[in-house]
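Each field is set out as follows.
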Amino acid sequence: MINYDFDIAAILIEMILIFFYCQKKNVPNSQNRVFLMFVYVLTFSSIMEIITSQLKQYSSYCPMWIQWLMECLYYTGTNTLGIVYTLYCSAILQIRNDSKISKRANYIYRVALYLPYFIALLIIWLTPVLKNVYPLAFDIMPVQGYVRNNNIWFFMLYGITGYYIIFGFVLLTVFKSKISASVRFILSYYIFVVAGAAVLQMLNFGLLIQCFFISLATLIFFFSIQKPEVVVDSITGAFNQIAFMQIANRQIKKDKLACIFILLDDTVFMGNTLGFAQLNNFLKEVAQYLITNFSYYDVFSFSQECFCVTIKNPTEEKVAAVTNQLQERFKKTWMHDSVALRLYSRFCVVNCPEDATTAEDILDIISMTSSDERYKKPLIYAKDIDLEDKRRTVYIEHALRNGLTENRFDVYYQPIYSVADKTLVGAEALIRLKDEKGRFISPEDFIPIAEKSGTILRIGEFVYESVCRTLSTIDIEKYGIKKIDINLSVAQCMQEILAEQILSIQSIYQIPTSIINLEITETAAAHTPEILLKNMQTLADAGFELSLDDYGSGYSNMNYMLNLPFKMIKIDKYIVWAAYADEKAEIALAATIKMIKELGMTVLAEGVEEKDQADWLIELGCDYLQGYYYSRPVPKKEFLNIMLDNK
């Protein structure tokens, strides 16, 4: 007697799986497609197992050709389950998208995956063709009906099924780092379920339990691995950013994609005013409108500030039509429970692959559109956005984050010439940064970014301590070093504990304070006059020399020179160059130098690049000169050699 209860239960489970799968949002990726294929093949196998079992009992009443066909279909279904399971493992592990796998390895993988399956199909479908010539896997007898041939061909079919189970297990083992331990355990659990059910069914001919146990394992796949909710925004019900990454990357590889982003401004303000629960209700209304009116496209909700509609294989006319429709709708108010709300929106259109070649590039564009004031317009196209500037900023931010921990910062020294001593008397300490490949990043690029991120505080402390450490390890008189200039950033000058930190480091290394000249920019003086004055007075009382850096390049307020305890003024190199090239600018510079000298301060001119410039600046009354004519900024060891040679 044959018990069909387990097969019937299996079919019910499979129908439930198909129903719930189709009811939920699923990203059209390879994992979901293979999972659905697996459920369909499993359902087919369950149905065919019932049909073939019935035919075995009533073979005398059924034409032989139908029996042959049904048995071939049954074996095709059961053998397809093996390769589909392996494909499912491969899809979860994303083996096809793994750039680390060489073309040769990928070719071997495909052959190993598909060849045994084609051999199995040949054995199955050649069996009825060659039945009178050479018996293969099974036979259909006039009276007995189905009879399996206990030969190598029959056992090869089961061997190929076992091969795919082992294949899947090997994939899970080799690429285990790509998935969590729980997912790996669940996929491995399927192997033991299939093996155990197959053994039980072979020992109990009438007990059809294999498809039932596989259905239970598939049910576990659905609730623990598939998880459609992972790709759906919990508030709006639209696809989320995870789904966008998968869909966009897949579509860009195949063909063109247009992304129309809807950026909502002031959502935090609206949430604080209306309550975030009420704001979420309006966002649901927006999502429902988009899903209903753009059902042919994919709709995404990234956060409370951003929605996106994607158009596959777009035309300019289609993109323009959708954009216009969205703009017109968002000009109107949104209603929920008799409450009206105006959502202030901006739009950004990204065409792929022209504007972006990956989903990550698209998100970079939207990040710039959201944060950069230059791009906060009612409608902007990605082609008008300077994405390279953003990438450069990210690259520098990464270098700054890791620069100190990975010892990629260094202090260089640019020598300073004293007119009175007629020789080099010191240098300005300048920070230098290399990236991971050893390439220099210009200070003009990384200093502004470091100031915005706050990293400049650690950099400033690093420079000051490096200089103190260097000076503490050498004989200062031997090298003729009388002064080292160190820049203080705007962020450092805003710190009330600046003087305390500087004095603390100086006391550790016991460096004479008179040898250190702290340079403060006009920008710093303008931003923090009260805090700066307090710090400067403390440092001046301790014996540090203070200078106003880059005079003429910033605010140029006379009050800074008169009210702050500066001993030296550094003339910005661009002022020097302009005066050297223009007679009126030269008159202004000469007057400035004269005024500074009469106020009792010394003058250092930057940007000296040739002897004629040096002679001209000396004639104008400069006390110190600095520039490429004397030396470029050089590493510590080279600077010390230069100082020895100039004694």
User: Anything to note?
Assistant: The radius of gyration is 38 Å. The mean pLDDT is 86.
